[in-house]
Amino acid sequence: MVALMIFGMIAAAGVAILSFSIRAQAATATRLDDASALARTVSALSADLAQANTRAARDEGGTLRPAFVGEAATLELVRGGWTNIDAAARAGEQKVFWQISDGSLVRIGYPHLDGAVALPPTTMLAEVRSLRWRYRYAGAWSDRWDGAAGVPLPQAVELTLDRGERPGYRAMFLVGTGYTGTLPGSPPGATPTSTPPPVNPGAN
Hints:
Blueprint: H1 2-50, E1 57-58, E2 64-65, E3 68-70, E4 75-79, E5 94-101, E6 104-109, E7 122-125, E8 130-137, E9 140-142, E10 145-146, E11 156-162, E12 169-174
Antiparallel strand pairs: 1-2, 3-4, 3-10, 4-5, 5-6, 6-7, 8-9, 8-11, 11-12
């Protein structure tokens, strides 16, 4: 009887340990998957921003849009370096759009620069409650960027993610590998007339 009781206790302890091990493995796998997704997101965003260029593009209605348009919640830009393995009849530049959709950070690409309908969105990172983009130029930050004249690109971009129960994330990226040029005919150091005055980073 005592032996059976001891055996039962050992068996119960073994089941408990096995159950804990399975839960721990599942939690670890989830965290690793999320860390991998975050790393892929940062890599894709770094590539987009580092290769941002000044080529304006037309939307589906034919309206010419600046090469780089940023709001607090969305980011639209034209980037170079788009690999063309299949030698398709398209440019090596691509228009891309970043935003939150249904609780996930998504990246939307366009097959052509001018007048094209967007490709299906690619989910980059799940469980994103909110995000905030900020744009740096000449030592100050702004919540908006519309480089329609003068300086088409900011010098850096900051991304802050609120992920609810998951750890938040904040990162800064160089744009155009530290782009410092101006459009032809613009005085050195000119700022876009359509860009609001930058916000002091310590004012928030």
